[in-house]
């Protein structure tokens, strides 16, 4: 009995050992994850409150300026997207920043501030920054940092994105610690593919948010050869640059480095190209505006003059205001018809098409799901014509139609004026001059296309 008891006890101890090992391993893993999280939080906060970021970050800079002692609430940082991905625990963030060399936390553990005062804005930022394009579609800051950190210490990365979709625009700016590092990045990483446009900043054209394929390599080489026939010096420089790129490519393959097809140039060079592009855009918009003025000439403002020759008409500004804000519907008795049904009424278009066969409908005022609404006609005669045909309409659609009169009519006309004023006061999306001009040009093109597609009918002689 004693031996059997010893065996069972020994068996229990041996089965417990693997469980204890598993628990210890899990605890180690948990400690490692917490340690890594604290390190990531510290790195992110130190970047936000570092010299490089604060010279560019208006929001944080304003918060620090508005604070008397320079402290910022840690809860503000938990609203940032980057911090949301890591943690939203204020206590954990305060714990991560205990040994920080950049920021310090208050005694309560709710606020933090910089340890040292922010210096003046550096003047050599552009010379230390490179512009990079032909980036992958779903590029991230960490990917760019991994690629460019081979050339030096990356201190800041900017990836512009579209406001509507949040997708990257295909280019970025990378700031290094020194100008030598940025020059090294241009030398090492500038490796655009053969089919890429020769000039920087030329992105693939899109049609209906889809990229338009570039011309084939054969066509491209044929076009370039025709253009460059008379420029031997340019040809020589291009060939030398091509040979240099190929040589670098081979050297990288020998070393075993990853060759990424990117175009990298200095920010100063990019600024020159930007100015060139803006000038070209300005010229193109001016040409477009002239073409539009030829197609749609401005209407001349007719002024009334009295017998003495003095201008007795409206001022030009008042005339423009009248053109921009046309008068709404004027009160006329007997043009509003009330429509009711036992079930929710169909859509506006359906009702308008059904009644337009009898009289011209000006406006249908019906909300989706309502069993009653109002219809405005051009004249009282048109409204009466619909009432006359009510018997046939009721058989077909089961609608009840009545012309409004008295107080009901007055109240409805007041509703029309209130609704119109609310619509005019509604804030509108402001468009830039270029967007406005392009939108007008597109409208003219569509109108002319519709006009051209109309059939010409000849009368029989």
From TrEMBL:
Domain (HTH La-type RNA-binding): residue spans on this chain: 31-122
InterPro entries linked: La_dom_prot, La_HTH, La_xRRM, LARP7_RRM1, LARP7_RRM2, Lupus_La, Nucleotide-bd_a/b_plait_sf, RBD_domain_sf
Annotated Basic and acidic residues bias: 1-27, 224-239
GO terms, molecular function: RNA binding
GO cellular component, as recorded: nucleoplasm; ribonucleoprotein complex
Region (Disordered): 1-30, 190-247
XRRM domain segment(s): 330-443
Coiled coil spans: none
Keywords tagged on the record: Differentiation, mRNA processing, mRNA splicing, Nucleus, RNA-binding, Spermatogenesis, Transcription, Transcription regulation
Top-level division of the source organism's lineage: Eukaryota
Pfam families per the UniProt record, alphabetical: La, RRM_1, RRM_3
Compartments where found: Nucleus, Nucleoplasm
Protein name (database record): La-related protein 7
Organism encoding this protein: Denticeps clupeoides (denticle herring)
Lineage summary: Eukaryota, Metazoa, Chordata, Craniata, Vertebrata
Gene: LARP7
């Amino acid at each position: 009995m004693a031996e059997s008891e010893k065996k069972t006890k020994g068996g229990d101890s041996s089965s417990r050992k693997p469980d204890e090992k598993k628990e210890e391993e899990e605890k180690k893993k948990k400690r490692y994850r917490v340690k890594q999280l604290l390190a990531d939080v510290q790195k992110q906060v130190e970047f936000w409150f570092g010299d490089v970021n604060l010279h560019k970050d208006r929001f944080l800079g304003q918060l620090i300026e508005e604070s008397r002692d320079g402290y910022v609430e840690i809860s503000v940082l938990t609203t940032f997207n980057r911090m949301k991905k890591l943690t939203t625990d204020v206590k954990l963030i305060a714990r991560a920043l205990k040994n920080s060399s950049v920021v310090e936390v208050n005694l309560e553990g709710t606020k933090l501030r910089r340890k040292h005062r922010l210096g003046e804005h550096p003047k050599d930022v552009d010379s230390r920054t490179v512009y990079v394009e032909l980036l992958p579609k779903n590029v991230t800051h960490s990917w760019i940092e991994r690629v460019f950190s081979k050339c030096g210490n990356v201190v800041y990365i900017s990836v512009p994105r579209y406001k509507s979709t949040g997708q990257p625009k295909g280019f970025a700016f990378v700031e290094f610690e020194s100008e030598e590092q940025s020059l090294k990045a241009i030398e090492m990483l500038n490796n655009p593919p053969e089919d890429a446009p020769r000039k920087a900043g030329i992105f693939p054209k899109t049609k209906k948010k889809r990229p338009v394929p570039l011309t084939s390599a054969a066509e491209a080489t044929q076009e370039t050869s025709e253009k460059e026939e008379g420029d031997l010096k340019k040809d020589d420089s291009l060939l030398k640059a091509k040979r240099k790129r190929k040589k670098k490519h081979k050297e990288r393959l020998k070393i075993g480095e990853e060759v990424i097809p990117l175009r990298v140039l200095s920010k100063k060079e990019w600024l020159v190209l930007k100015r060139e592009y803006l000038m070209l855009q300005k010229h193109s918009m001016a040409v477009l505006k002239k073409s539009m003025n030829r197609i749609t000439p401005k209407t001349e403002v007719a002024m009334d003059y009295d017998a003495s020759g003095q201008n007795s008409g409206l001022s030009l500004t008042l005339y423009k205001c009248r053109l921009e804000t046309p008068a709404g519907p004027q009160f006329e008795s007997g043009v509003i018809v009330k429509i009711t049904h036992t079930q929710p009424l169909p859509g506006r278009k359906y009702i308008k098409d059904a009644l337009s066969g009898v009289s011209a409908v000006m406006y249908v005022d019906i909300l989706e799901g309502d069993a009653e609404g109002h219809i405005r006609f051009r004249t009282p005669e048109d409204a009466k014509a619909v009432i006359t045909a009510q018997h046939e309409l009721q058989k077909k659609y089961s609608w009840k139609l009545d012309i409004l009169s008295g107080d009901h009519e007055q109240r409805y006309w007041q509703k029309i004026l209130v609704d119109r004023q609310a619509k005019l006061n509604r804030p509108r999306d402001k468009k830039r001059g270029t967007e406005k001009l392009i939108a007008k040009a597109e409208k003219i093109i569509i109108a002319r296309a519709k006009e051209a597609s109309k059939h010409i009918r000849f009368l029989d002689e």
